[in-house]
Design brief:
The radius of gyration is 17 Å and the shape is globular. The longest helix is centred in the C-terminal third of the chain and has 16 residues, at about 180-195. It is α+β, with helices and mostly antiparallel strands and about 210 residues long. Helix content is about 35%, strand content about 30%. Helix 3 links the parallel strand 5 and strand 6. The model is unreliable at about 10-15 (pLDDT under 50).
Length: about 210
């Protein structure tokens, strides 16, 4: 993970009026995006306290990339947990801002983030809500659609499933095949490294 700006080739997008680039964000930018986007883009039960993100960032365990158009407008953001004792990046939050959606920017952004993980010799993983525990309806359909988006963009759906503080998740990852037991171990290690043993023992259950 380098504090540099990376130009994106966005020829697959539907609107090429502006080029795209990504860069690491500073604390004030992380705060602004949290207050203006994350709190409305994600369910309240999934939103971590901003203070925790900023504290972990100071400790080297959290970082954020922004994707911008050449005119400086924010197009998307990606918040990451950096595990300190395994070579893993957990993609904590990924979103395209509301007025930039439906232009394939999500796929473009995700591919660049996968490249960053590869260049840093890190396994990229992420959580998605598990539709197996949802009632039939629009919410479940959206969960299935999200998984489809990630699989379409080269992420692998593992068999790791866990309950985390009131939410049910499946784990996806990029790269070479990972055995189920080892993915369980990786996920548990990332959680314990970031949240601490006591929190995980009380709030996380693997199925």
């Amino acid at each position: 993970m380098d504090n540099i700006s990376v130009r994106i080739n966005n020829t697959d997008t539907q609107d090429n009026a502006n080029g795209l680039y990504i860069r690491i964000l500073e604390a004030d930018e992380i705060t602004d995006i949290y207050n203006e986007h994350i709190v409305t883009d994600f369910p309240a039960s999934e939103v971590k306290p901003l203070s925790q993100m900023l504290r972990k960032r100071e400790q080297g365990q959290y970082f954020v990339y922004g994707m911008f158009e050449d005119n400086g407008e924010l197009a998307g953001y990606a918040y990451f947990i950096k595990c300190s004792n395994k070579d893993v990046y957990l993609l904590d939050y990924l979103a395209i801002v509301k007025n930039k959606r439906s232009k394939h920017l999500g796929s473009t952004f995700l591919q660049e983030l996968k490249n960053i993980a590869v260049n840093d010799d890190r396994l990229l993983m992420l959580e998605v809500e598990n539709p197996d525990y949802a009632d039939e309806g629009a919410a479940k359909d959206y969960m299935i659609k999200r998984i489809g988006f990630y699989k379409k963009n080269g992420m692998k759906l593992s068999n790791t499933s866990c309950y985390f503080l009131g939410n049910e998740y499946r784990i996806l990852y990029a790269g070479d095949e990972v055995e189920d037991d080892y993915m369980d171990e990786i996920t548990d290690t990332v959680y314990r490294d970031f949240f601490g043993d006591e929190f995980v023992d009380m709030n996380v259950r693997f199925h």
